């Protein structure tokens, strides 16, 4: 259930016609980190919360704080950010799902998508690199999935991107006569969300990257860039140049210090990176 930040009696935000972006809690937290990049780079204001009993409870400081005045603001496990000028709303998920609650969350989420009249849903996710089959080992590590409703709506608009659709693989690799199906190992709720959206006629796109656990910051940057190839919500300083991203990092929780790092993005400070507290030794 969406709970707006506005006080009692004030009008709730209008999400009609906007695109909803959210991460799946998946391998390497890549979707969540990429979503952080989008929110911080666009400086998206928080407009509310997604109240649910399906996520592990958590509370922390404002991860996007830029001054002492807003550093004491609290953040919880599911928050909503909006930027109508970009036709974009973002649901950031910061904690894992409680056991057996993922389906309930997906159903509640899609119900909110319908009631808020969002045009489409984009899910940023990841999948275990070691579970790829022979054909998936070749070429790009990125894949996409569109529901039939979205495919019908956009037609051939993304053909120029030369993206690669997620392949169907054997249900049981050891049995060559087993059925072919979409599998996203390590993808969390990604496959379930996709199947429910297909059955309910919701326009949804899944964008994911094959990766492994570890330092997943480069994967998050790659996934944000992959998304931007289509949406064009983040600006680049020039043709064939990399994105200028605000990555809010706490130096003590990272593999490096927040000094000059030449990757075309701006390193700032952050207080939490999804429990990956990698203390520098």
Please outline the helices and strands.
Layout: E1 2-4, E2 19-23, H1 30-42, E3 46-50, E4 59-61, H2 68-71, E5 74-76, E6 78-83, E7 88-93, H3 102-116, E8 120-128, E9 142-146, H4 148-154, E10 168-170, E11 180-182, H5 190-200, E12 204-211, H6 217-231, E13 246-248, E14 266-268
Parallel strand pairs: 2-7, 2-8, 8-12, 13-14
Antiparallel strand pairs: 1-3, 3-6, 4-5, 6-7, 9-12, 10-11
Helix pairs in contact: 1-6, 3-5
Protein described:
It is a single chain. By secondary structure, this protein is α/β, with parallel strands linked by helices. The protein has one domain (14-238): Rossmann fold, CATH 3.40.50.10900. 23% of the residues lie in helices and 23% in strands. The chain is built from six helices and 14 strands. An eight-stranded mixed sheet has the order 1-3-6-7-2-8-12-9, sandwiched between helices. A hairpin with a 4-residue loop joins strand 6 (78-83) and strand 7. Helix 1 (30-42) crosses helix 6 (217-231) and helix 3 (102-116) packs across helix 5. It is globular, with a radius of gyration of 19 Å. 33% of the residues are buried. The model is unreliable at 249-281 (pLDDT under 50).
